[in-house]
Write a structure and sequence with these properties.
Radius of gyration: 19 Å
Shape: globular
Largest sheet: 8 strands, parallel
Helix content: 40-55%
């Protein structure tokens, strides 16, 4: 059963790559018009959505395609450390691994980015200098987002000043669940402005949004407010990225581009640990949004341990055997 239907037309198109402006017309003119738009989105059939995600997860991948998929997945990893015990040494080691994931095989692609807290951005930036690996920083009182807007914006500006290429913000889930959509919208707009040239990833914490309908509404809300990426999770709660919630968000970005001409990326994060899992997600991307999203500019994995398994599976394909326990670094 289909999980989406044609989305309501926006009154006017968005401007590609920029923050929202007055051209959004009455869609974001007030809380009531925004609510009317979001609640006018097609309802999600949970059974159909989960069945579709499960069926895509059974697709078999041949050896040549698997090798391609593994390298693509490596190139899409936001290699992440977001712990209170993070040290400059740990972040430098993470940056070195992002730049040269497999020291024994320089044909392995670099990861897309390293993702750290704002106070570690400068260390990460130095560690990946000249490599093309981006530095992403969580911000806005990550992971709970429980802070006043000026504090959140200061968090963002600190990260950008330190050299962050990308900002991963969290939405105010309490405001969203209370139906205060305009507050969430205005915060995203403000963070987008504070991010400057850095790309903005908007984290919904899908495990706390309760329903698939809410995930669809949050996806459109984030995109209307100028998100460059929409992201499932912080990785700090029980339910993080799943094939079903990622499929739903991919439907949203696909439909959003069809309506506005604006392409937005998707980042599932948390709980994706194996090559098998990553390939399932890539199949979902290809079959839902299409090949345009099979690029690390538009799709990322938020992960810490996934890279190790990708590297071991890559070595297995190349040599016919798994490497020893010392082949990959311990993160």
């Amino acid at each position: 059963m289909p999980t989406s239907a044609p989305s309501p037309k926006l009154s006017t198109p968005l401007e590609q790559g920029g923050a929202p402006t007055h051209v959004l017309g009455d869609v974001t003119a007030s809380d009531s018009t925004l609510r009317r738009f979001l609640h006018g989105l097609p309802g999600v059939d949970p059974v159909g959505l989960e069945a579709r995600a499960a069926s895509l997860g059974t697709r078999s991948i041949k050896t040549t395609a698997k090798a391609y998929a593994i390298d693509l997945a490596i190139s899409m990893v936001d290699l992440t450390t977001l712990e209170g015990a993070d040290t400059p040494g740990k972040v430098r080691a993470l940056g070195a691994k992002a730049v040269l994931p497999d020291p024994t095989d320089r044909t392995a692609p670099t990861t897309a980015a390293v993702c750290v807290y704002p106070d570690m951005v400068a260390v990460a930036k130095e560690a990946v200098a000249g490599s093309g690996v981006k530095v992403a920083s969580v911000a806005t009182a990550f992971p709970a987002g429980r802070a006043a807007l000026p504090v959140k914006l200061a968090d963002v500006r600190d990260a950008v000043a330190a050299g962050a290429d990308e900002i991963d913000m969290v939405i105010d889930r309490g405001a969203f669940l209370a139906g205060n959509y305009m507050k969430v919208y205005d915060e995203i707009v403000a963070v987008k402005e504070a991010s400057g040239a850095a790309r903005l990833k908007v984290i919904f914490e899908t495990g706390e949004l309760s329903t698939y309908d809410n995930i669809r509404r949050a996806s459109w809300l984030g995109m209307l407010a100028g998100a460059d990426f929409i992201k499932t999770s912080t990785g700090k709660v029980a339910v993080n990225a799943t094939p079903a919630n990622t499929l739903l968000m991919l439907e949203a970005v696909r439909d959003f581009r069809a309506q506005t001409g604006v392409q937005v990326g998707v980042k599932p994060a948390g709980g994706i640990r194996t090559t098998k899992d990553a390939i399932k997600f890539l199949v979902v991307v290809n079959e839902t949004a299409g090949e345009d999203w099979l690029d690390n500019h538009w799709f990322r994995f938020g992960a810490s341990s996934l890279l190790n398994d990708l590297l071991m599976q890559r070595q297995k394909l190349a040599t016919g055997r798994y490497s020893g326990p010392d082949y990959v670094t311990v993160d």
